Amino acid sequence: MEEILSRSSSCCGRCDQPSRRRRHKEERSNGRGGSLISIVVLLVLSALLPSAIASSTSRLRGKKIKNLYRGIPQHGAQRPSTPSQYDENLRRLILIASSARNHGDDEKEEARRELVSMLDTADEAANSEIRQHRKLQKGSINQNRPNKNNLTQLQRQRIKRLNAQRKKKNAERRKKKQMQQLLNQQSSQKQNAAIQKNNGKKQTDGKFTFGPPPQEKPKPQNSAGSFSAYETGKSMADAFVNSLASSFVSDGSAGGGGNNIQEASAGATSYTITQGSLVSSLPDTSTQIDGFEKASKLDWSFPKTYPWKVTSDVSFEGKSSVKSGLPPSSANVVVGKSLYSNITLSLDNEDLNQVKGKTRGGAVLSFRIKATKALSWPISAFMVTLNDEIVLSPTDIESSGSALWERNEWAEFSIVINAKESSSAKYDIKFVHVANPLQLDKLPNVPAALELYMDDVRLAPFISKGDSLDMTTSGTGAKWKDVSGVFVATSDSISQQDGYTDLTCVVYSKLGGRLKYELKTSTQGPFDDIAILFNGKVQDAQFGQSANFEYAEVAIPKGKVVISFRHRKNPGKLTKGTLDKLGAVKTDGTNRVKKIELWATE
């Protein structure tokens, strides 16, 4: 417009009128075109300005831009009605930077630099605000976190209890892992032994038999003052864990506990012991080799640390027994260590010949043990080895004797000694009592003394062909009766509301066997039934109405086994009111047993 005015003012009067009118017409048309372009530019800028301002101010509102940062959400995101000085400057710079012709290039470039600087400043301010907020938030979290120096006694005890529980769980996990590793190792050893056995089988060409030379087993050194692998502290914990693992994978070498059956080897002789008669008392075929009443003639030895001692505190028979040398309280156990009290009995073939009758390839050694609740894993354990081979594991001892020890009774255990033809053969039976076998840093509290007693050590010959199974009866007032070779017991003969009567025999076997019998029962649970017991532990129980005698058999372990057929009246010891509510009894309450036989091998 200014250009048009300057041109109009510079016109002179000497211009002719037609040319003047033509020039003014062109200028007016040019002026209208320029005005139209300016109006279009202003409309475009007005449309672009709000979005540009919004995009720039969005950084201040904390929105995510180009993944640089995430701001703090703020309320009231709408633009205020009165623009601030910052918004006015921002608008001005945007107008200059986007101007098409009203500003020079230098001015536009300067406006762009200022605009970038303002946006960077806004980013730094937003980042600073975020850092300040995070710092404040972190400070509040630290304030809420308890300081160990300001903990109360109750909080300290709770943290200590939680730490102990965590350590216990970790120890259990390690123990399970170690047990699994031992099981795998045992399985691998068995497989290797089977492979070596197959490789070492003798071969024949029809004239001569040849094979690998026999390997002699090294003799153990078990004299007083000397230590074997089970007495040294280097790996006793591993030995006990190994004994636990072997009880799961072995074919069972423990006498007096569990159903451990050993299959008859090639060349073994099998025989059947038939049913005998009902006698008032069973003949005792065993011989007591030591009752600890006087100086022993046997070869007993023990180390100097925690030796066993003869005591008159308690005894199975007579006045004396021997007692383990471990401290009476588990609290005296050194933390993280194990304490051992061992005693070894060394026998030879001449000692085995002391038993009544012929040894027939060996004998059964039996003994009585009395302990307390402290004899439980992992507080303490007891096991027996024969020539450094475990024959009674801690699990065998604890499972068979714990119920008797709770009633303050003695438990009987036995092992099998297989005789060797060599005149210099030795049989070292080691009784191992250990406290804290796993070397734990802390043991459970048990309100019982760590005491263990042993008494009544006996040898008995194996049962053999030609012997008979004589039976005896005992119980709570009632007796079994022998009616023409059939043993009969009735609930009516038991006057008490609940009681039992036993039909008992004793077997000393080298490899175990199978007990066979025929049973006819007319009993109704829970009023009465019949149970089969081995060494005081129930193996089977049944009741019902039999039409005829039914054949049955059950496996028996090796060693000494006391077999009892127990007729039980009210075995659950229910009250009379409870029994009356169950209705009338529809059976005779009678058990009949006949043809009791033992199939065994030697």
Give an account of the 3D structure.
The protein has 602 residues and is α+β, with helices and mostly antiparallel strands. Helix content is 31%, strand content 28%. The protein is built from nine helices and 25 strands. It has helices spanning 2-9, 17-57, 85-98, 105-144, 153-199, 236-249, 349-352, 394-406, 576-581, and strands at 203-204, 209-210, 270-278, 287-290, 299-301, 309-311, 321-323, 339-348, 362-371, 380-386, 389-392, 411-418, 426-435, 452-460, 468-475, 481-483, 486-490, 499-509, 513-523, 528-534, 537-542, 544-545, 550-556, 559-569, 590-601. Strands 3, 15, 16, 17, 18, 19, 20, 21, 22, 23, 24 and 25 form a twelve-stranded mixed β-sheet that branches. Strands 4, 6, 7, 9, 12 and 14 form a six-stranded antiparallel β-sheet that branches. The chain is elongated. The N and C termini lie far apart (134 Å). The relative contact order is 0.10.
How would you sum up this structure in a few lines?
The protein is of the alpha+beta class and 602 residues long. 31% of the residues lie in helices and 28% in strands.
